[in-house]
Every structure is written in C-alpha cells, then in structure tokens.
Amino acid sequence: MASAFSHVLVSLALGKVSQHNMMTWRVLLLGVVCSIVPDVDVLGFYYGIQYGDLWGHRGLTHSIFFAGLLSASLVGLWYRQMPAGVKAGICFYFFLCTASHGVLDAMTDGGLGVAFFSPFDTGRYFFSVRPVVVSPIGIGTFFNEDAFQVLASEAKWIWLPTVAAFLILRALQRVWLGQPAVERSRAD
Fold first, then answer.
1. Per-residue pLDDT averaged across 148-166, rounded?
2. Domain map (residue ranges) of the chain
3. What HEC string does the chain produce?
C-alpha cells in the first residue's frame, strides 16, 4: 500500500484544485478521511480475515463500489440540505478521494493487488507499471530503516506528480478564467 502521507496529499490536492466555495475545510477533512478509510480493512488481520478474502486487505473497501457507497453515505448524512449541484460536487470529491486510495495502491510493487470491482469481481489488479515501493502495514512497522526508501519512492512517483498536476491545473484555471474564482465572487 502507499503510505497515509500520499493518500492525504492526493485528497488535499483534489480538493484544493477546485476553487468553488463548497470546498470548505470540513469537506477537505472528510475527503482526507475518505482517502484513508479503505485501509480499515487491515483490522481484519486481527480477526482472522485472510489478505485475499472479500473483506481482506485491498478487498471490498478498496473498490469503486465502496467509494461510491461511502461518498453517497457521507453526503446523505451531512449535506442533504445543500442544493443538488453542491451535493453532487461534494459527493464526486469524496468518491475521487476514496477511489484514489486503490489507484495509489495499484501502483505499488507489493501485495496481492486491488479488488477494484469487488463485490462483483473479486479479482485483484495492479497497473502494468508499479514504480512505488510498497509501504509496510502498521505505524510501528513503517518507522524503520525502510521508511526513507518508501517516502523517497512516494515523493518521486506520487508527491511530485501530484504537486505538478495541481500547479498546472491552477495555471490553466487562471488562463481560461482570467482570475481565480475567489476573486470573481468578490467582484460580483
């Protein structure tokens, strides 16, 4: 799996690239939670759930189905009073944050792969290019001599491309829109 650092960075970049006022700190924080929640499946190890099982690590909680279910549930619980367009935008952001978890994990060089299509197809998949060094499971096992190698790999293959994409998208927004959305709303 990729480390929590990478999952958080990607979710924040996804949220901050949008300059819409719906992207409050509460929404961003929930997006961060969505990006980390799929790894709740590691608790299954303590209850005898095997890695390759439906509820095993990188199983159902790493699927596109789960991403949709979690994002719709969060919007239904906390944002049902919002206008439909805002709810749809927040739901899409939560979906992207949750789904990005599996995408990052499928880029790693270890584990069994990601059950993207679970529960309908429990097959595990990786991308054909897997440059990211897999992060150990658990906080205690992460902070060892391999931590630098994991973080260096993530900096090269996740952090730098994420920051670059964020900066490029922000620059394109300025070119296409002429000024940031925040400034336009103040001018109105």
1. 94
2. 4-187
3. CCCHHHHHHHHHHHHHHCCCCCCCHHHHHHHHHHHHHHHHHHHHHHHCCCCCCCCCCCCHHHCHHHHHHHHHHHHHHHCCCCCHHHHHHHHHHHHHHHHHHHHHHCCECCCCCECCCCCCCCCCECCCCCCECCCCCCHHHHCCCCHHHHHHHHHHHHHHHHHHHHHHHHHHHHHHHCCCHHHHHHHC
Closest CA to 79 of 27, 29, 25, 21: 27
Is a pLDDT exceeding 60 seen at residue 48? yes
Q: How far apart are CA 68 and CA 163, in angstroms?
A: 26
pTM value surpassing 0.70:
yes
Contacts of 2 (CB under 8 A, 6+ apart): 101, 104, 105, 107, 108, 132, 135, 154, 158
The 3-state secondary structure of 25-64 reads HHHHHHHHHHHHHHHHHHHHHHHCCCCCCCCCCCCHHHCH
Q: Is the pLDDT of residue 166 over 90?
A: yes
Average pLDDT, the chain: 91
Average confidence (pLDDT) over 80-89: 95
Find the radius of gyration of the CA atoms of the chain: 18
